[in-house]
Each structure stands twice: as structure tokens, then as C-alpha cells.
Amino acid sequence: MKRKVAEQIVRNPDKYAHHDRVFLNNPVVMQGMGLAPLVVLATSGKNAVMLAVAVLLLLTPSRLLACLLSWFVPLKDEQPSEEELEKKLLPRGLIYCGSAAVVYFAMYPVLNALFGVDLLSLGVYLPLLTVEPLLIYRFGRVQERPRKAVSKGLRITFGYALILLLVGCVREWLASSTIFGVAVGRHAVLPMASMPAGGFIVLGVVCAIWRGIASWRKKDLRTEADNIVALQRQKEGNHEQ
């Protein structure tokens, strides 16, 4: 671990963890975002891959477009007044949803070329991604800059894709003893894993384990950072002497 990173962790460990949207602050595990596609559609590795590619093509471009357009009605404070919210929330919401819809129409031919009729298995939940909180929750938040929109969008995309693939493969294995159609067992462990109710159960277990590991990792990072900073300060003190 570099000293600069260690100092950031010691100074504000929660802020450091907040920026890690892949593992320590995964949007699904920690904020409960994007649950509908996970529970209803991520029933197999193949479905998970299609959803992950859709999110990859949709989330960051639509977030960047909405970021640029929303400068016409920016929210400049973390806690804006009620008067400002009344004026700006509706147009900002329309901008974010409209941006996602525009990007969706642009990326659908790409998805169709990649997956063909298999896309039909995603049903209405694919276009519903355009109003998914993962994409549009920023409409009520303080205005962000394009660079941050791209950076954060990519991190959220990879974090969401990771849990999509994990949950999809686990559910396929539990429901049919296969992963990506390849047999990995003789008997289904939990046939209901292919149903939404089973999806909630699997997701709940995955999130519980994930949160436990993330909590342990945060403590481990803090201990490592404390040791590095203390060692560096000790070396600096010896040099001064």
C-alpha cells in the first residue's frame, strides 16, 4: 500500500471505502440498488452476461450525457432549499430518464447483434433499466463534473456486473446443476432458485457473506494503513535526529 493511500484511509476510512464501488461499497450490497433485474432475470450465467453488457453500454454513457445536460438546471448544494427542489427536481428527473432512453435506443442494435433473439428472455426489464435507480439516482443530488460521472459510472458498472455474474451463476447451479449450460452436478440443489423468491434468498445470502468480508477488509485496510503511517513518521523522526 502506498503512503498516500494509507494517509487517506487513516484520515477518513469511510470516505475511502465509499469510493470503492466494486467491493467495499457495491451499490447492490450496500445500497440495495438494481434489485429487480438481479432477482427476476439473473437466473443463469447467460442472462447475467446479457444484463452486464446492457449495463456496460447504458450506465456510463447515459450518466455522462445526463451530467452534461443537467448543467442547465444544476443543484449546487448538498442540501438545497425546498424552493430550489420544487423548481429543479422535475426537469432534472426528465433529463436523467430521457438521457438513459436515448442511450438505450442507440445501444439496443449492438445488443441485438450480440445476442439476437436471446434478448427476448429479458422481457420488459431490459427497457426498464432506463429508470433504474443505478442510472438516475443522481438527479436529486448535487451537480457532478463529467470526469467524476465517467469515473464513478465505470466503477458502479463493474461492481454491478460482478454481482450479476456471481448471482446468475450461483442460481443456475442451484436450480439446474449447470453453469453457462455446462453440467457441474447431477441434481438440482434448490430448484426454486430460478424463481424470483429463490432469487431473493440467494441474493440475501450473497449480500450477507459479501458484507461480512467487506467489513473484515475495511478493518484490515485500516490496520495496514495505521502501521504504514506510523512507520513513515518514525523514519522521518529518525532522519530529523
Q: Indicate the mean pLDDT.
A: 91
Number of H- or I-type helical stretches: 9
Q: What about the largest sheet?
A: 2 strands, antiparallel
* Structure class: mainly alpha
User: Strand order across the biggest sheet?
Assistant: 1-2
Radius of gyration: 21 Å
Low-confidence stretches: none
Q: What percent strand?
A: under 5%
Tell me what the structure shows.
By secondary structure, this protein is mainly alpha-helical. It contains nine helices and two strands, in the order ααααααααββα. It has helices at residues 3-11, 13-19, 27-31, 35-41, 45-69, 82-115, 133-136, 146-176, 196-240; strands at 178-179, 182-183. Strand 1 (178-179) and strand 2 form a beta hairpin. The chain is flat and about 70 Å long. The relative contact order is 0.18.
Write the layout of secondary structure elements.
Layout: H1 3-11, H2 13-19, H3 27-31, H4 35-41, H5 45-69, H6 82-115, H7 133-136, H8 146-176, E1 178-179, E2 182-183, H9 196-240
Antiparallel strand pairs: 1-2
Helix pairs in contact: 1-2, 1-9, 4-9, 5-6, 5-8
